[in-house]
Amino acid sequence: MVKRISSPHILREGDMKRALSVFDLLEEAYRNESSLTLAPSDEPLGGLILTVLSQNTNDKNRDKAYQELISRFPTWGSVAVAPVEEVAEAIKVAGLGNSKAARIREILEVVRGRFGGYTMEPIKHWPPDRVREFLLSLPGVGAKTTACVMLFDLGIPAFPVDTHVARLSSRLGFAPLGMEPKDIQVVLEGLLKPERYLGAHVNMICHGRAVCRARRPNCKGCVVTSLCPKVGIIS
Fold first, then answer.
1. In angstroms, rounded to a whole number, what is the distance separating the alpha carbons of residues 155 and 133?
2. Reduced to 3 states, what is the DSSP secondary structure of residue 28?
3. Given phi > 0 = left and psi -120 to 50 = alpha, else beta, which region is 95?
4. In a 10 Å sphere around its CB, with 0-12 CB exposed, 13-18 middle and 19+ buried, how is residue 74 labelled?
5. Would you say residue 3 has pLDDT above 70?
6. 88, pLDDT greater than 90
């Protein structure tokens, strides 16, 4: 069981009920809670590197960078000993190539030192709180990356907060404007049952991309208009 951390923002009972209604409506619209299931990967290290590449870029460029990286360097050991500038060149499409290359090299060094090789398979058998603590200790790994690896690569319930999730959380009144993503994560994990985290997370991303966009959100086409305190205010 994942130990829950006290929320830095307490929703009133009425707001909690409204929030749950929002998640139910988003599920009716996008159906990710009913269609997606937690599926641990064989080797979470690859998922971690992929998530590091996703920082400050889009999924398309992240995937291009990852494919180029593993094409040029067939093993994580070969990445670890390659010149940093060559790694940076391979992942440049994802942006911040120099800093991400350095972080990846540092992560690989820590992993090898901890597990005796370039694998994180042992953490699949750890308690969730120990997994979170380890991931957060890695260079350049924060709350969002940790939650993504836990959810998508280890099958451990967590609620990653990207720009879409943060934006919707603020607009829908789940969290105050400017709240840190790591704190929004605590709020969202306190709202829902763990088995809903994966689908609800993806539903929010779908809605943020298609309807509740950063600029000119489509409030008229929104399924949660009646429950949104910001409807019509944002242009």
1. 16
2. helix
3. left
4. exposed
5. no
6. yes
